[in-house]
Each structure stands twice: as structure tokens, then as C-alpha cells.
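FAQ: What does the model actually see?

It sees only this:
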Amino acid sequence: MKARLVLALFVLASIGLTQDPKPPTLQVFSAKTGTVRRTMDSTGTLVPANAAAIRLDLKVYDARSGLRLIEVLDHGTFVNEGDVIARIDPTAIDRMLKRDRMSLDRTELDMRHAEEKERMQAEQEAEQLQKAETDAARAEKKLKGYREHEMKFTEESERLSKQARRNRVDDQKDELEQLEKMYGEDELVDATEEIVIKRSRRNFARSTASQDLGERRRKYTKEWYYHWSEEDLVRNAKVRGASLARLRRSQEMSRERRSMEMEHKRFGLARQRERFADLQKDREQFVVRAPRGGILLHGEADAVPAAMTWKRGATVRNRAIILSVAGQRAYKAVTKIAEKDVLSIPAGAAVEVAALLAPKRKMMGRLQVEYLPKKGGMFDATVTLAKQELRLRPGLSAKVIIVLEEERDAVTVPSGCVIDKGGKKWVMAGAAKDGPFVKREVTVGVSNGKRTAIRSGLKNGEFVQQQRQPARPASPAPARMRKK
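And it is asked to produce this:
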């Protein structure tokens, strides 16, 4: 009896499984005008859009000597413009400033001494040049005077001397002749008369000899001595002129050399003053002040929350962003794009951003992707928000929806109503909700998997029939009878 009951139950279950269920009714949808978007979702962080980055720009001080923080305000502190937000240990740079100040003072003193020496050297050269010019001018004037006057004076003097000698000889000759005539008429010649005649004869002979000697001396002097004197004067004028030319050239070269040396000293002094001024500016940077009012952030504003926060005793690097002061109103969203997706995003793509704490308050913006990837093949991307209605804070997480394609004011239908066959798109369309439906070829636009834009072949308000059947639920397995 029990065996027959089990067999009957088994037959009934088999009959139930072999019978087809009632076919489901195909859904009908109305074509509506709307917007279809194909998007890509990402996550990002809201950061200040106009933050002022603070970095050290030390030009002289060797940062390898250490830049140790001795004071820094906490991350997230509200500050006003000009507030001291950090201090760096100035011990080493103060010591360097003192040493460079003494070196600069010594160089300035050397420069003053060099300028005074140059002034005295210029005065001495002017005196030497004036003396040389005077000597050269005198030598030329002496030569000219000798040629134009002295030779004439000498010739005239010689002529007068010659005439005097000739006259003296003639006078003595006349006197001797007169004495001889006078004493000759008087036959009585005494001893005194003999002496007078002898003396007159000796004087006459001496004057004659002197006249002959003077003539020979004059010829010699004119032939040799005057010629040599003129040569000496010509040579002296040339020597003085050449000496003056050499002195001028020597002084010119000396001035050029000293001028270059002075220029080198001035250049070195200017460089040293510039270096000292830069070092003073470096020292001013050891007291870090807020360039504007806002929220103090440790590190870069885009790296919110900060990867690290500064503590007293920490060492910072030169020319690296150590702090930022962010405004409280303008924000932007930063996100990352995978390498596989970067080429599918159009330039300047529209983006919707919503803070996770207020997902319904969406903000629009434009996406800008960096040209080069970071480590791991991820590209940094920034969304500049056009309008902010929500009060934000740095570091809030956000959902970033990137619009890859968009079609506005298009006739749209559920994607399941579109048939793709033979490279063509079809829909079962009808004028009324209850049909009849006929196959109609359409041109489709953007599709996001849920809705598809129809560019031609279908009008707004017409009806389409869904063609994709929902998955059939699996039949439950028959319960296994337990054998009592």
C-alpha cells in the first residue's frame, strides 16, 4: 500500500515538472523625451581651490645645515594674515650672518683704501705728466731758439769780436808805425824809447797772433762746436718727446689695468653685498607668517587629509611645500583616474560632485586630467566646481560622477526594448499601449544600459514593447520522502 502511494506521488510530481508555466506578459513602455548619460563613477576628496602654498626659498643659506622647526601651529588652525605660524631654529644662520657681516665690512674698507690709492696715483701721474710735458716743450723751444736766434747772436758776436781784433791790430800797427816814425826823426834814441818801441812791437805781434788764433778758433767752432750743439739740442728734444710719449702710454696702460682691478673689486663688493642681502632675506624666512587668512594645513592643500603633520623638532626641506593656508569658500575635488580609463574620458568632461555627507546636493564642474601618470599608473585629476551651495570643509570625501557621453532632449526608451540583429537596431513600436506592435528600424544614440536615446524611427509618446524576457525562476526540487 505504501509502495503504491509513493509511486503515485512521484508520477504527479513528474507531470507538474513537464508542464510549461504560463508565458509572462510583455511589458509596454512609452517613449519619453529626456537626457541619457553614460557616466563613470569615482571617489575623491574636497580640497581648497585657492590655497596659498608656503615654501622656503633660501638662496644663500645651505639647507643641508638643517632646517629644524622649533614652533608650528596645529593642522586646521584658523589664522589671520601676518600671523606667525612656524619658526625655524636660527642658530646656524645667525652665526653665518655675523661672519658675513664682518667679511663685508672688511671688503668695504679695502675698497675705500683702494679708491684713495687710485686717487693719489692719479695725482702723482698728473704731476709726472706735467713735468714731462714741460721738459719736452722746453727742449723744443730751446732748439727753436737756438736755430732762430742763438746762431744769429753768435755769428754777430763773432763778427764784432773779429772786427774788434782787427781794429786792435790796426790800432797797434798804427801806433807802432807812429812811434817808429816819431822816434826815427829824432836820431837820439834813449833806452826808454827803445823799451816803448819793443813793447809796441810785442803787443802788435801778440794781437796779430791772437787775431789769427781767433779766426782759426771761429772756423773750428762754426764747423764743429755749433754743429754738435745743434745735434745735442735736436737729440734732447727727441728724447724728451719720446719720453713723454712713453710716459703717456705707460700711464694709459696703468690706468686701464687699475681700472679693471677696481671694476673687479667693485663687482666682488656688489656680489658680496647682494649675497649678504639675500642671506638677510633667508633669515626673515625663518619666521614663517601666514600670507592670507584661512585654515592652516600641514603640507600641500591637495593632500587633505595631510599625509603627515609637523611637530616641534621636525626637519623641513628647502623649496618644498611645508604649509598651506586655505580659504573657506572656494573648493575643488581631486580624484584619480586609472590608466585603462584615461583615454575614454573626453577633454574637459562635465562632472557631478556630491559630498558623501550630503549626497543629494550635487555640484557641477569640469574635469582636468594630468598628462603624466603617477606611480601605479594612476592619473591625478582635478574638478573645478562652478557653484557651491553647501558649506564645505577640507578633506571631505565625495562621489565624483564623470559624464563620458550625454544626449539631451532625446527620445528615450528602456534599453531592453531595443533589438540588435544583423547590424541594425529594431523596436516593436505601436501608437497605443495595447498595440498592435510592429517591427520598426531605428537609429540609436547614447545608451547607459538602462535607457537608450532614439535619434530616428520613433516619436515621443509612442509605445514600445519590451523584448528581453526576465530570467525564468528555477523549479524547486521535489521534497525527498523520508522512509519511516
